[in-house]
Amino acid sequence: MKDTRPSLEMIAPTVEEAVAQGAAELGLPEEALEVEVLDEGGGGLFGLGSRQARVRLTVRSEEQQRETQVVESESAIVSDTREDVDEEAEALRITQETVEELLERMNIQAEIEAHWGTADTPGKIKPLHVEIHGDDLSILIGRRGKTLGALQYITRLIVGKELKRPVSVMIDVEGYRERREQQLRRLARRMASQAIETSRTMSLEPMPAYERRIIHIELRDDPQVETLSVGEGKRRKVTIIPKQ
Fold it and tell me: In what order do the strands lie in the sheet with 127-133?
């Protein structure tokens, strides 16, 4: 069957120029054209006897153009996904090496495992968890987790600077944060019950930001209470207010 699609032959110094000129003449993007190279051209000795490139350009059918767009779109998605995977792997490597170096400077031997977590709310930065295991690591936790908080803060600064973007690094030592989180969740529920029963606002002890956030998240779907953070600096704390 004879091909009735529009076609055009172009001559230019190079194949690329011939394709570009032909696409401009047809008023179509290059992706909408099939390119058949009739002569790649070539330069003669000292520029003498050189040949022009010659191509035949045929307009793709609408179905072919759609198929091309689908393939290009899928390729772009695969490429973006591969880049994301590479960036996440790089962030894991840098974070683990940073924590290893910090512990080495502290003369502490421990096993370190870094992995990605999931964001607890849409739009939030996905957390990067670092688990530290070893013997007698209480020195890394400190009183009420202050040393652990400092280690986490320093790690975030270093990793963020290396990657040139913020990273939510969460460091835990022998499950300390997980145990503390469960304690805070139980505390939030207990104090919320007291606030409801007595119809009075209940104030919790001052806490660092990440602990206050656990209280807020635990009670955010409770229709009987609302939570607020009040105070300044290290004295900032959560209040639980019963709804009337």
Answer: 111-116, 127-133, 168-173
Residue 119 lies in domain: 82-174
Residue 96 makes CB contacts below 8 A (sequence gap 6+) with: 112, 113, 114, 130
Residue with tokens 């930001």: 209
DSSP-assigned letter for residue 39:
E
Residues 6+ apart with CB under 8 A from 111: 132, 133, 134
One-letter amino acid of 188: A
Q: Which residue do the tokens 């409770």 mark?
A: 222
Residues above pLDDT 90, as percent of the chain: 31
pLDDT score recorded for residue 46 = 46
The gap from C-alpha 49 to its chain's centroid, in whole angstroms, comes to 56
CA 14, 16, 21, 25 torsion: positive or negative?
positive
213 located within any domain: yes
